[in-house]
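Sanity check

After download, print the first record. It should look like this:
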Amino acid sequence: MQAILSIKPEFAEKIFAGLKKYEFRKSIFKNPSVKTIVVYASSPVKMVIGEFEVDYIITSEIPELWELTKAHAGISESFFYKYFENKKCGYAIKIKKTRRYKTPKCIVNDYEMVPPQSFAYIKE
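Expected structure tokens:
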């Protein structure tokens, strides 16, 4: 099962450069069989640029989540806490193996969907 995530271009670049090993989310997919994440780089890129395998997902209270992931978060502590402001728990998707596409794909034409606010499942 695949899901597509909207990720800001600066963070998507860090994922494919190997500098960001966790993707943080306020909510997570309900389907536990999601094994691959397709990366939609949001505005101004607005293209699907690659994918990564899910190693595991951490569900934790925010301070513990930071402690568990900070060495490879790819974001600053202040950005992390601002992102999770007013949240008790959060999620960190551990990135296993990345694959950047040689040619970026158009989400509308190639996937027949609109960019998701957070994530969407991909029909197989």
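If your output differs, re-run the checksum step. Summary of this record's structure: Residues 9-17 form the longest helix (9 residues).
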